[in-house]
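for the writeup, i need someone to sanity check this before i put it in the appendix. the sequnce is what the collaborator sent (i think, or maybe the updated version? ugh). structure was predicted straight from it, no edits. if anything looks off just tell me and ill rerun, i have time this weekend
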Amino acid sequence: HYLAKAGIFAARRVKKSDMEKLARATGAKIQTGMKEINKSDLGKADLVEEKKIGDDAMTYVTGCHNPKAVSIILRGGTEHVVAEAERALHDALRVVGVAIEDETLVAGGGSPEVELALRLREYSATLIGREQLAVAKFADALEVIPRTLAENAGLDPIDILVEMRSQHEKGKITAGLNVFTGKVVDMWKEGVVEPLRIKVQAINSATEAATMILRIDDVLSSKSAPAGGMPPGGMGGGMGGMD
């Protein structure tokens, strides 16, 4: 009441995690007692207000100077829609974070996979025996990415792959599929890029999984126990066959 009269916004029952985020956003320092507060501990923001979103009242702190934390509000018709939006946003933020950390990007649209497949096929021609087949099949596996992109875009994957291979053979190493236009264009000029770390991790993980499967010598299949039946040997703790 008295704080409101003085033009000071007060909030109660604020979670510690929210306090920490607010401190990072405004540049303020968290204090546990009123006597310890001084001017240098205060943060800066242009506006603090309460808004109602649906049935929830939320406090908005806007116009922060050089914020180190921000909040994003996601809304949807159902919980499933919101959950999907949250997952997609989380993935997007992580990708952007990796790109900023590594400062290394590659063109998207399946162009790295087609270029790698082309070079691997050239390399396989220098090999003999089973190694040649293994390298060639690895190249085929890489092209699953552009093939899937084409299928998901409702395009003919064979036509798209032929066009992409043709352009890469001409030295256009960043040629990839624009799923919006259905054309094979320069992904770098289109601004369609991916962090190198994520691309390398995806290829490494797929390779390790395939290698693990190939190293399996045999598979033991177990038969399920008959429904409602007692296992051989009678009840646990007793001798089989006793009443």
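The chain has two domains: 1-31+41-71, 106-214. DSSP finds nine helices and six strands in the chain.
thx in advance!!
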